[in-house]
Amino acid sequence: MKVNHTLFDDVKLIDPTVHSDHRGFFKEQYNEQTIRKVGITCTFVQDNVSFSKEAGTLRGLHFQREPKAQAKLVSVLAGAIYDVIVDLRHESPTFKRWQGYVLSEHNHRQLFVPRGFAHGFCTLVPNTIVMYKVDEYYSKEHDSGIYWNDKDLQISWPVSVPILSAKDQQLPLSAHTDANFNDGDGAK
Ligand SMILES: Cc1cn([C@H]2C[C@H](O)[C@@H](COP(=O)(O)OP(=O)(O)O[C@H]3O[C@@H](C)C(=O)[C@@H](O)[C@H]3O)O2)c(=O)[nH]c1=O
User: Hey, where's the site called Participates in a stacking interaction with the thymidine ring of dTDP-4-oxo-6-deoxyglucose on this chain (predicted)?
Assistant: First the structure.
């Protein structure tokens, strides 16, 4: 397994060891011991899977407010995504900066996103299955987000007219969201 460091201190891009042969491949999708050795020490309590039919489906940008913030370990079981994270930690030198990474069934790459980030992705091919572990349970009351095309954040998405959920079409702008991340006030 190889761990690549990113612009953000504790965000990690992980390339698992893939054993390929004439049948296909084998990989350890998750190994607690190995992942702890690279400094990911949170306890994952929930595994999520989403399936997106169309390329250009965009889910995000999402986060749960404190005290129900979530760290995420994101991977792709089928297809490919452009995975985007935004640093919402007020004290961070990279506050409000974003980065995007391609995760796919071919590169096997996983992204570890600590608590304090907004997360979203856009599918690059049809029939994409994303799997991610989270270290806090889902809480509808703490569910929050930022509009995907927020002008302040200037994210370069690979699509200009994405397929969005009704909820994601109505997410607030970052100017109204970041102030609410730590105090649990709710995004308006
Ligand atoms: C996230 C989540 C949703 N749900 C429910 C709520 C809703 O009825 C339905 C679909 O939820 P959403 O539309 O929020 O699903 P989705 O847009 O795929 O939300 C996900 O997006 C990515 C980018 C993330 O980072 C995740 O944390 C999560 O926010 O599933 C759960 O039951 N448990 C969960 O953990």
Answer: 138
Tell me if 11 is assigned to some domain.
no
Note whether residue 54 is domain-resident: yes
Task: Confirm whether 2 is domain-assigned.
Answer: no
Query: pLDDT digits over 17-44, tens only?
Result: 999 999 999 999 999 999 999 999 999 9
Q: pTM, whole model, 2 decimals?
A: 0.94
Separation CA 153–CA 47 (nearest Å): 29
Number of domains in the chain: 1
60 lines ligand 1 (CB under 6 A): yes
Report d(CA 6, CA 111) in Å as an integer: 10
Q: What is the CATH number of the domain that holds 139?
A: 2.60.120.10
Query: 172 Cβ partners below 8 Å, 6+ apart?
Result: 145, 146, 147, 187, 188
Q: Is the ipTM of this complex over 0.90?
A: yes
Annotation says 132 is catalytic: yes
Whether 34 is in a domain gets the answer no
Residue with tokens 């992980």: 14
